């Protein structure tokens, strides 16, 4: 590319973008207030799954609304003031659950996941972390016949997009994961999918690969951005702190919204917050792959640090104080299914999943802002889709690729 590029955000998306642009010949500076992988990318369930093509706003969401709006489920919680202040986002989110948009979103996310998986494997080999990868897939658990029937749309969608699955009877589930209690009516094994035992270690290794390959990392808390002549300047929290480059990539996940406001861009982004906690297993009990208890509203993943329980969705301001009641509820449901031991962390971890109204990320140049590129809004699946995002961004930035090839992710759909 022959130009200097600043990539703002050292989560999995930003690190992958920095690596891809460096590979394409740019001089790249990766910028973050923390070390790479220390924010949202640290706390996910570690799943790299084809099944992630299924967005939360699907046609079945309308039927679930009366129950969800009661604000007392373990799967979904919201702060009323936040929802009232973001009714525009919520309305658009619901409108994008209609079948025609759902179909487009599934196709777009499927293509992005398919593009990402082989790139992840290449990066893991290059970064020396392939040993953290499992290829045992993951399992969806259903506590009743009604719950199983309610997943029909998801199963149909998986079949349409060649996602390998296998239905498991209670006996087959017990043989696969003997530590689980016999409370599940049926299970769905998502085959051909991967998981890792430490997402943060993977991101950190990718960042080390970036530095070893000639990239630069800079600690800076970005407070504003502005266009200066033919380039872009990032202003830090101190008056003396600023960086300028020919092109700027904003990959700050949930913090992209507030930063982009400083240049006049108002993203329709909400924050699907979530919590995690690590546990021991009583008497050495464990599982061999991540499990998603659809009725319990949690994912339990075997990690290097113990069994990681991750919660469902809490809609609230990005940096609002933690409200770990959702973790307590999830833990209670998990103890019905698995012999969890003690909590291993001093406090619950809180992460933010940045979600746009159609559950697709933005990848491309911001309208009317030459040299300002966006790679953000990956909701729950940034870990699964980061390398593919980087590939698309690299094509758009260095090959003059036709943006229509990737129109499903175009920033102009909301800006």
Automatic annotation (TrEMBL):
**Which terms does the record give in the GO molecular function aspect?**
oxidoreductase activity
Enzyme Commission number(s) from the entry: 1.-.-.-
Q: What class of enzyme is it?
A: oxidoreductase
Traced from the root, the source organism's taxonomic lineage reads: Bacteria, Pseudomonadati, Pseudomonadota, Betaproteobacteria, Burkholderiales
Keyword Oxidoreductase carried by entry? yes
Entry's InterPro entries? FAD-dep_OxRdtase, FAD/NAD-bd_sf
Report which superkingdom the organism of origin falls in: Bacteria
* Coiled-coil features, chain-numbered ranges: none
Residues annotated as domain FAD dependent oxidoreductase: 4-396
Source organism per entry reads: Achromobacter seleniivolatilans
Per UniProt, which keywords does this protein have?
Oxidoreductase
* The keyword Oxidoreductase is annotated on this UniProt entry: yes
Which protein, by its recorded name, is this? FAD-dependent oxidoreductase
